[in-house]
Write a structure and sequence with these properties.
Structural class of chain A: alpha+beta
CATH topology of chain A: Lipocalin
CATH superfamily of chain A: Lipid/polyisoprenoid-binding, YceI-like
Radius of gyration of chain A: 20 Å
Largest interface: A-B, 52 and 45 residues
Shape of chain A: elongated
Largest sheet of chain A: 8 strands, antiparallel, barrel
Oligomer: heterodimer
Number of domains of chain A: 1
Distance between the termini of chain A: 36 Å
Radius of gyration of chain B: 29 Å
Structural class of chain B: mainly beta
CATH superfamily of chain B: monomeric porin ompg
Strand order of the largest sheet of chain B: 2-3-4-5-7-8-9-10-11-12-13-14
Largest sheet of chain B: 12 strands, antiparallel, barrel
Number of helices of chain A: 2
Order of helices and strands of chain A: HEEEEHEEEEE
CATH architecture of chain A: Beta Barrel
């Protein structure tokens, strides 16, 4: 092999991962995360529709970034207290997740179907990281759109989120979190 | 080309370096190990500073905060008598000056409110508009500025009015007073907020010719968070000299407590979910601008201090619309 052919080959080789990644990486900027806190006294619900997430189907790596201030509540004051008193969003502006999704391969994502998956990795909320393993499902639509969803439980005390006695009856000890993503090829 | 083949090709040093060069030069994205960086910087839009104060009043005067859109804030303000009255009046707790009011947020920037005070049986109303909003992210505005316009009317019987005299006609317009304030301030840190409130109180009727209808004043106030839910607040209104009635030595000899003075208040905000309790000491009796800015006569140095509290309870009347799921 001459130098020249090696160079040409090299270029060709270098271009292939771009072509591959176009099919294997999926992302969204407007994922939807909801949380519910339910107690006999009060039900609290908040929606964040600005969740960013990237999934690399070839390696299984998946990441989330969730802007805390983007959670919207029914009651404005609740939203203010959520940011100021509980999440301290000026100090910890984002919640993050970094991990791997298993249960679907890079080849499977090319064919429509529903896949049961497990996502495990590091969940960071309020600056406190916990290793978690969360069940979910991925639906590959006929048009190649990938929808991922999951439901899991987060405990405020696991992430050092203090809940004072006066509102103890209003805020549940376990918060139900649902994730809904519509991922587009990147 | 299969993955295995190109992986094998990468073992040639030349190809590997070319490959890396290509990645670095033409495709910087692929070289990142943080997947989220692939999306680049997100543009979340401007993020305005929130919670500069626990509620829309510092103590008597307006703070930088508004009630949010669709939120009704029911406020009860209560000032006991002055503590210097001693045990006979239970240190002032036997007497009370009360204001009951409702504030409502028409938008996140515009709020309106009405109130009824026992002090001179006064009804007051105001509108408050946030002209500038301090920004944490995405715009760079360093301060919040709000305009507050209010008016008050006393509903006392003519003979109970402070300016009553039998030979004077009781004109309806005489009962009005107005106040305009610019509330300028900044949440300097998570714990500390400071604001300046230059303002003008206009009184339709004054009692003597050597006082002014228009009274220019400036308030300075601030808060410091002691914990997440408790803050220490202080507020001082300075009235520029020569605008309020000056009493002669003779008049003061008869009643040394006649002279007007500036309003100074110190207190705590305690927030418990939907309520804010404000507990404070102040030398002002009334809870609307004309009363506490131009008609404060009690003096701290004489112990003429009122213990008082405000209670704020919010109700969400109009819920924000949910965006449709795509």
């Amino acid at each position: 092999m001459t130098m020249k052919t090696i160079k040409i080959l090299g270029l060709l080789v270098a271009m292939t991962p771009l072509a591959l990644s176009a099919q294997e990486r999926f992302a969204t900027r407007n994922g939807h995360i909801t949380f519910y806190s339910s107690t006999p006294v009060e039900d609290i619900e908040a929606h964040n529709r600005k969740v960013t997430s990237v999934w690399d189907a070839s390696t299984g790596a998946i990441e989330f970034a969730v802007l805390i201030k983007a959670f919207e509540f029914e009651k404005a004051l609740m939203q203010e207290h959520f940011n100021e008193n509980y999440m301290e969003s000026n100090t910890h502006p984002k919640a993050n997740f970094k991990g791997k999704m298993t249960g679907i391969t890079a080849d499977e994502v090319k064919t429509a179907g529903t896949y049961v998956v497990t996502v495990s990795g590091d969940l960071t909320i309020h600056g406190v990281t916990k290793n978690v393993s969360i069940p979910g499902s991925v639906v590959v639509g006929p048009s190649g759109v990938v929808k991922a969803s999951s439901e899991f439980i987060v405990k405020p005390e696991d992430h050092n989120i203090a809940i004072p006695g006066v509102v103890r009856k209003n805020i549940a000890e376990t918060i139900k979190v649902t994730v809904d993503l519509s991922l587009d090829p990147l | 080309m299969t993955f295995a083949l190109y992986e094998r090709l990468l073992h040639f040093p030349m190809i590997r370096s070319l490959f890396l060069l290509f990645l670095l030069g033409a495709s910087p994205l692929a070289a990142q190990d943080d997947l989220l960086d692939l999306l680049g910087e997100e543009d979340a839009g401007p993020s305005y500073t929130t919670a500069s104060f626990k509620t829309t009043r510092v103590i008597n005067g307006h703070s930088l905060e508004n009630t949010a859109k669709g939120v009704l804030d029911f406020k009860i303000g209560h000032r006991f008598g002055t503590v210097d009255q001693g045990i006979g009046n239970f240190f002032g707790l036997d007497q009370a000056s009360i204001r009951i009011g409702f504030d409502y947020g028409i938008t996140d920037r515009l709020m309106v409110g009405i109130g009824r005070s026992s002090f001179q049986k006064t009804v007051d109303g105001f509108a408050k508009y946030k002209i500038l909003r301090q920004c944490d992210d995405g715009c760079g505005m360093p301060i919040t500025m709000a305009l507050v316009a209010s008016s008050s009317i006393t509903t006392l019987q003519a003979q109970d009015l402070p300016w009553y005299s039998p030979d004077q006609q009781d004109y309806f317009t005489h009962r009005f007073a107005y106040s305009f304030q610019l509330v300028l301030g900044r949440k300097i840190s998570e714990r500390f907020t400071i604001q300046l409130t230059p303002g003008l109180v206009h009184r339709n009727l004054i009692q003597t010719i050597n006082e002014k209808n228009d009274v220019y004043n400036v308030g300075i106030s601030g808060r410091m968070k002691l914990s997440k839910r408790v803050t220490l607040n202080a507020e001082y209104f300075y009235v520029l000299p020569g605008q309020l009635r000056e009493f002669t030595a003779q008049e003061l000899a008869g009643n040394p407590d006649l002279g007007f003075t500036n309003s100074l208040s110190v207190g705590f905000d305690i927030e418990t979910g939907g309520h804010v309790f404000q507990l404070h000491f102040t030398n002002s009796t009334g809870l609307f601008e004309r009363a506490f800015i131009t008609e404060t006569t009690n003096r701290w140095e004489k112990g003429q201090i009122h213990y008082g509290f405000n209670i704020s309870r919010v109700f969400t009347l109009v819920k924000p619309k949910e965006p449709k799921d795509i």
